[in-house]
Amino acid sequence: MIYSVVRKRDENGQNVDLELKFNVGDIIRVLELGDSDDDDPTIISERIYKGLWCMMGFTGHINGKMGKTMFCHSYKFLIHCVVHALSHRKGAYDETSDYIMNIITCLVLNRPYNVSQVRFDYMTENAKAGSKKYIMYPRFIQMMIDDQFKDLEKNDDDVLGLRHMTAETISRLTKGPEPRVKRKICRINNPVYVALENDTWRHEDSNSDNEDEKISVLVEKKTRWWFVKDGKRKRTPKTSPVVPIPKESVPKIVVKGIVKGGVIRSSKEP
Q1: Rounded to 10 degrees, what is the CA torsion of 82, 116, 100, 73?
Q2: N or C: which end of the chain has fewer CB within 10 A?
Q3: What's the CA gap between 200 and 17, in Å, rounded?
Q4: Distance in angstroms (rounded) separating the CA atoms of residues 215 and 47
Q5: pLDDT digits (tens, 9 = 90+) for 83-108
Q6: Taking the alpha carbons of 51, 53, 57, 59 in that order, is the dihedral positive or negative?
């Protein structure tokens, strides 16, 4: 449960402090994200999400960073929207966090995921640490306040302006060369798509490219949203070992100047 105080004026114009409290159940009810605190998971297999992302056309290394620039424009746009809407970070929006990867995976595969629990966990941790960073979800907090205090007076100075997506945003997202374009898959292509119940991201009759070669070198990490120990979430997992990412070999070219007849010519040696 998160506790806070909301100050309002009474009928005599005096400031009165009112208690604000909410739990994950309130977030589920107010935000109406369609998740459930009883059945929906917050942990999924890292293997299933990375397999799906390869299916979506991910161009990076399977053990490297997962960034939206490593996808074609359509999937890059999807990732961009989810990161800005649900991420708790204040910058570095190109790289995606583990739980954001989970959310995108479950959206595409039409699998359940408890987004509200993830939001509440980060709010609670920051509140316990004496931090005000739980206000990094200002639109969600305002919805919780409005739900409990219907007649709360609004101060124009407290209004937070939201930057809506414009043609400039789309232009920025589609700037530069586009990786191989991938067709729409799973729920994006079929609204009634039914995901498999196990850790498989594709049906056997799927006619898209196979991801087995990329997945074969996967080294699973230990993070709070991927790693399960003894059937329970491990809150403080050991740091995952650094996985070396092989670099593509590029032939070295040495350029030497040769002076002949007053003209500098160049020769290349491997």
Answers
A1: -20
A2: C
A3: 52
A4: 8
A5: 888 887 776 778 788 888 889 998 99
A6: negative
